[in-house]
Amino acid sequence: MKLRLGNKLTVLLCMFGLLLGGIASYYSLSSSKQILIAAAKRDLLLANQVLGRNLQISLENFARDLKVLSDQSQPVEVLQDMPNNSKEIEELARLFTSMLDAHPEYQRIRLIEAKNYGLERINVDRQGIVASTALQEKGHIPYVFKTLKLSPGQQFFSEIAPSRLDPDKALTLHIASPIWTNEPRAVGVIVLSIDVKTLFSRLKRELPDYYQFFLANSQGELLLNPEREQSQDQGSIAMLQAQLPEILTLLSGKSSSMLGILPAKREQPSRLAAFTTISIEAESNHLLLGLAVPEKHILQASQALDQRLIQIIAALGLITLILSLWLARQMIRPLNQIGLAIAHFSQDLSLQPLPTERGDELGKLARDIRAMQEKILAQIIQLNTNQQELQRMAHIDPLTGLPNRRLFFDRLEHAISNAERSGKLLGLLYVDLDHFKEINDTHGHAAGDEVLSNVAHLLVSVTRSGDTVARLGGDEFVILFDEVESRATLLGIAQKLLSLLQNRLLIDGKDLQVRASLGISLYPHDGSDAQTLLQNADRAMYSSKRSGRNTITSSHIT
Fold it and tell me: Interior CA angle at 394 toward 392 and 398, to 5°?
């Protein structure tokens, strides 16, 4: 029995509809997953870079705390065995204890003398002050004899390694500063031991729980291995290159960051991973910092779309089986329109016209596809917003809203390049608030933050739209004047700012006097590169400090 033309068209329409729906679904799923994975790769790499920067900032803060300790008078008095120094020992031990209480990452602080084979004079750990009878000689340990060879101002960073005496295999980083007197050699060292696992636990709180952390040394030996922690396997040392051979490009120094896929193993699914190199000190070479996220979390957003597309395909098959020849004639055009719209969306995410005004099943299909496209676009916009927010956090000071040190250096280097071509002058004005610590101590940190915000607004008020006001950290600000006529012009601007700073500020109902010391440098007279230009402005500012504060000093480099 021969089929009539209508039946043939119905069968052909059914086959065509199912085929078109399958192709449309395949390209829609493929494009949406590719878009989600590409966006996740960018976000993962950016998050890893921000994490690495936060790690470097934390280590810089630790080193700064240790430098402040080594510059105090108590360690010198203890090491020089001054008469009745038991009080100094007790005060210094209490200071060490308070620092351990304030910083969960701090594991131990020790004062070690250079003589007597590096005998410990004070040893404070998480259990308290170590008894004098238990103090040991540490002169043979690298963080002692290497630190004693350093020049004033230098610090020693040890390699991060698991403690052989600790059953939990705690990862420890030792930072050491020499203690100097008028003698030609250092009289001792202060050693700060950092619990790296505790530090990473704090950094990890800023990211979702399903993120996994990896930390490896310059040889690829895994120091932090989430797979080892979950399996509780404390066997042989795991090497990162065994799981990800591409990591050799980082270990060899050919690249500073990379993305890769960690294969599924045991109970671990396949994961997308980003790795970057983190440089700490020459003694430590460099570290590899990694972030990994299971692919199922990346594609989780597309699961609802998968189910919706399956429903659409089922509905399409049912519709094409029931419809008659009239439906076959009516379906060809709208299906072609839907296919074209999906193809354009897969290629460039453009929304093409769809027959959404129809009241039949094809209209429902078009509306569902439109809803799917809008949902994908919304997810992409959200991912881009998150990426922009991460970039903003990496360049903007959160308290004042001013550019931070990193963004300021980018703008300064760009301005120097333009000035080198045009022959114009650039000016830097370094501003450091006088006695700001007293404001924090007397009126509280909230008042101090309000002072910084007010000063930031004041600095912006004396600049032009093309100039840059940045906060370098603490109570230090710097202004980049993109184009100045002469040093006298820059001095005039600085004098105007200093005059404005003579006015008192009303902070939370309190009348506060805020003064500042200013330093000036001029490109190219005071430096031909960004680092030198900023250093000379900083030196000029410190000259103002030494001259009695609340004044202006201009750098005179010839």
Answer: 70
Tell me the whole-structure pTM to 2 decimals.
Answer: 0.50
DSSP state of 315: H
Query: CB 339: neighbour CB atoms within 10 A?
Result: 15
CA distances from 52 to 59, 106, 175, 284 (A): 11, 19, 18, 15
Please report the pLDDT score of residue 328 as a whole number: 57
DSSP states along 438-454: HHHHHH-HHHHHHHHHH
CB 92 within 8 A of CB 111: yes
Round to whole Å and give the CA distance between 259 and 48: 11
- In Å, what is the CA distance from 106 to each residue of 19, 66, 100, 125, 147? 64, 11, 5, 8, 19
Q: Which residues contact 144 (CB under 8 A, 6 or more apart)?
A: 112, 118, 138, 176, 189, 191
Judge: domain 405-554, CATH 3.90.1150.10: no
Whether 475 is catalytic = yes
Mean pLDDT calculated for residue range 270-296: 76
Q: For the sheet containing 257-262, what is the strand order?
A: 222-224, 212-216, 286-294, 271-279, 257-262
Cis status of the peptide bond prior to 353, with omega within 30 of 0 = no
Question: CA-based Rg of the chain, rounded to a whole angstrom?
Answer: 32
**pLDDT, tens digit (0-9, with 9 covering 90-100), for 350-369:** 777 878 788 777 788 878 88
- DSSP letter at 528 equals S
Domain limits, the chain: 5-17+300-392, 71-198, 405-554
Q: Which two tokens stand for residue 32?
A: 């949406």
User: What counts of helices (H) and strands (E) characterise the chain?
Assistant: 17, 19
What are the φ/ψ torsions at residue 81 (nearest 5 degrees)? 55, 45
Task: Give the span between the Cα atoms of 471 and 405, in whole angstroms.
Answer: 7
Task: Determine the length of the chain.
Answer: 558
71-198 homologous superfamily: PAS domain (3.30.450.20)
Question: For residue 406, which amino acid is it?
Answer: R
Check if 71-198 and 405-554 are the same fold: no
Contact indicator for 500, 429 with CB cutoff of 8 Å: no
Nearest to 458 by CA among 514, 415, 405: 514
d(CA 176, CA 183): 19
Contact (Cβ atoms closer than 8 angstroms) between residue 139 and residue 220: no
Please answer whether residues 10 and 325 qualify as being in contact, where contact means their C-beta atoms are separated by less than 8 angstroms. yes
Q: How far apart are CA 260 and CA 257, in angstroms?
A: 10
Whether pLDDT at 380 is above 80: no
| pLDDT reported for residue 329 | 59
CA distance 244 to 235: 20
Quick check: 232 pLDDT over 50?
no
> How do 156-157 and 188-195 pair as beta strands?
unpaired
* Pairing of β 128-129 and β 222-224: unpaired
The catalytic residue among 65, 195, 467, 475 is: 475
Question: 36 with 298: CB under 8 angstroms?
Answer: yes
CA neighbours closer than 13 Å in the CB half-sphere of residue 110? 29
